[in-house]
Description:
Bound molecules: the ligand Nc1nc2c(c(=O)[nH]1)N[C@H]1C(S)=C(S)[C@@H](COP(=O)(O)O)O[C@H]1N2, molybdenum atom
Order of helices and strands: HEEEHEEHEEHEEEE
Oligomer: single chain
Distance between the termini: 38 Å
Structural class: alpha+beta
Number of domains: 1
Amino acid sequence: MPAETEEATSRSRIPPGQVDVQNLRVLHVGEIPEFDPETWSFQPSGLVDNPFTLSWEEFQRLPATEDVSDFHCVTGWSKLDNMWGGVSFRAIYKRARPKENAKYATIICEGGYTTSLPLKDLLDEGVMFAYKLEGRELEPRYGGPLRLVVPKKYAYKSAKWVRAVKFTEFQELGFWESQGYSNTADPWTEDRYMSGLRSE
Ligand SMILES: Nc1nc2c(c(=O)[nH]1)N[C@H]1C(S)=C(S)[C@@H](COP(=O)(O)O)O[C@H]1N2
Ligand SMILES: [Mo]
């Protein structure tokens, strides 16, 4: 397609106040955790009929999915077209069988980082626990062995180094959300901060 059209198309995929970058930037609080495949586990729990624990080997045997999505960090950069591979949130949801009063999930990471989302957002197309990026094993700095990917939200919802998912009736505030970042985190409406708390 002509260069102008191409530019217009990609510009329309960049939310307001964002600039597009060629590579994901490595961004997180704390140290990159050590990964030991022998002791690593993944644990869905809370308001579910079937709490379970999977080893790394068992997790990798779950049916896999792939999805290409854009990534928007609240600090102002976006990286388009990332091909993630892993297990859809839906698959974990189905296996855990949440109780009727479960409405949210808190994602719990190695090192203590947390974030949370309504189940209706987590059940969206493209939301997955990813262990691959561009067909290769997900590098530790990008959240390997396992990270959540939530394409429609600012990237602090895309938690790296995930170890557990807790289904809840009420929403728990995550790490950044409890420091004033928006709980709804919609890049398209520049929903960056909790209303009234911060303006820049
Ligand atoms: N465990 C954990 N996950 C995290 C973070 C973090 O500090 N700890 N930072 C978030 C933020 S603010 C961003 S922008 C993305 C960055 O992902 P990347 O380093 O793969 O680009 O990870 C998100 N997930
Ligand atoms: Mo971010």
